[in-house]
Amino acid sequence: MILNRFFKLSRQFSAALIVLPIVVVTSPVLAEDDTAYLAMIDGDGKDFAYLVCSDCHAMQHVLQKRYSRRGWRDAITRMTLDFGMAELEANERTLILDYLSRYYSPGSIR
Ligand code: HEC
After folding, report:
1. pLDDT (tens digit per residue) in 47-66
2. 96 C-alpha to center of ligand 1: Å?
């Protein structure tokens, strides 16, 4: 009896070990996120902007805009006031603002 249960358990366990890596490796969400991240211009604040701003919508939805620094500042404020984005610390806000206005403003070099 006990032995039977042991074999049953170990069968279930090894099935889980086989299935788990397949799910992780083939997850389509990961592939999509990688593409959006890789398409971003490299620079200070890229990782953090991606982390915060791709949470609710595609990063492309943000980066297709060309706002001035002031425009980006207002957009970030809108996200918090209108859409419930968590309040950012001043330095976090500056990091994102610097990144977006340096690389995604009307006069940015692309
Ligand atoms: C809590 C969810 C949430 C987070 C986090 C978030 N947004 Fe948004 N964002 C929205 C919603 C909702 C809309 C409006 C619907 C839409 O345009 O898809 C939106 C729209 C936008 C737009 C297009 C419309 C506009 O107002 O210009 C921009 C640009 C934008 N977000 C920038 C950002 C940036 C930059 C960040 C990171 C600092 C960010 N968002 C993070 C929810 C969020």
Report:
1. 999 999 999 999 999 999 99
2. 13
